[in-house]
Amino acid sequence: MAAACASPAVPRRSLLLSTAAAALQPEPVRLSRGASAAPKLRASPPDAAQAATAAAAAFGSKEEAFAWAKSDNRRLLHVVYRVGDIDRTIKFYTECLGMKLLRKRDIPEEKYTNAFLGYGAEDNHFVVELTYNYGVDKYDIGAGFGHFGIAVDDVAKTVELIRAKGGKVTREPGPVKGGKTVIAFVEDPDGYKFEILERPGTPEPLCQVMLRVGDLDRAISFYEKACGMELLRKRDNPEYKYTVAMMGYGPEDKNAVLELTYNYGVTEYDKGNAYAQIAIGTDDVYKTAEVVKLFGGQVVREPGPLPGINTKITSILDPDGWKSVFVDNIDFAKELE
């Protein structure tokens, strides 16, 4: 993968203040369902309370709620996490991982800076959102977060480029344990792991976020029913005592996915304070929150517009405490205009 030069930042008002700033209370957003799908337009609710009431009465049964969640226009938008030196991380991601700097903003009154990087525009690609909180140069990644995945044409060549640029290679190229896919592992300056996968011609190079869970079947059920995802595949590796499940909103070779990993006998993990959340687009945050509640999920921010911005969001926790934020597709599309 050839290294890409950072593009100039595009200043514009964010639809959120900080997704992972000072008080460690992240909440971000982005848009649509396939790698290039356009959002389905609809009229915004005239009143938040009215919309919430309508959503609560929208489903006559769990079956109706599940059917709506599966038909909703959703896509993984971006993943948010904290770094100790944002310029150092941008340099590594652009020079070693071949990402582009899509935009960067400094919010001195809130004492944080963040940057969006990826392999394509935010309206149709999965991207990363880095957050630097003034004066905080180190975070605890914890044991629960696993890695990010990047798909490339040639793993060996990519690893050599990363090594030549001073990157840390922690696993040399070779077949994955229990499989045939060629992979390697590298670490960024903060210690976040990146799995480099050989997948030629993919439209979505930033392809995975891996999180560890304490009960895989429980996690699969939650993401299927409460979040409307599909179980794309599940693989058990008894020799190495782990099982993985790929969850997402479209085929794994064309969309970013959530990789859930269960290690035999481990039911809880320390999550640290570095990783924040994943953002997901939806056509209706009010109905989304109701679906999550119907299937036993925890809504930690009730749906509604953000003060002063009017972008509608809702935030939830999965059974293992991992956070997701759903954002209104039309509101996000307006922000990108």
UniProtKB/TrEMBL annotation:
CC cofactor note: Binds 1 zinc ion per subunit. In the homodimer, two zinc ions are bound between subunits.
Pfam families with a match to the protein in the record: Glyoxalase
InterPro entries tied to this protein: Glyas_Bleomycin-R_OHBP_Dase (IPR029068), Glyas_Fos-R_dOase_dom (IPR004360), Glyoxalase_1 (IPR004361), Glyoxalase_1_CS (IPR018146), VOC_core (IPR037523)
Cofactor names: Zn(2+)
Residues at the active site: 195
The EC number(s) this enzyme carries: 4.4.1.5
Gene Ontology terms: cellular component: cytoplasm
GO molecular function: lactoylglutathione lyase activity; metal ion binding
Enzyme class: lyase
GO biological process: methylglyoxal catabolic process to D-lactate via S-lactoyl-glutathione
Pathway named in the protein's UniProt entry: Secondary metabolite metabolism; methylglyoxal degradation; (R)-lactate from methylglyoxal: step 1/2
NCBIfam families reported in the protein's UniProt record: glyox_I
Name of the protein: lactoylglutathione lyase
Organism field: Oryza glumipatula
